[in-house]
Amino acid sequence: MGAWSIWHWLVVLVIVMLVFGTKKLRNIGQDLGGAVKDFKDGMNTGAASGTPPASTTATKQVEGQTGNTVEGEARKEQTKS
Hints:
By secondary structure, the chain is mainly alpha-helical. The chain contains 4 helices and no strands.
């Protein structure tokens, strides 16, 4: 009972190919591969340029513009006391 043998995986593969078709599976594989490649390129570009992640700069910009964050309000209270 434990692990699945190669025959189990072959049957599953045949059923998946019958349900989805080879063309749709090929398209899904190409889309997934393209997404992974773009992600890697983006990570390499960000690391090479030395810029911080976008979420860090966006948080600082929002805090600087509005000052309505919980941290901003806590800082205001500390300076008042």
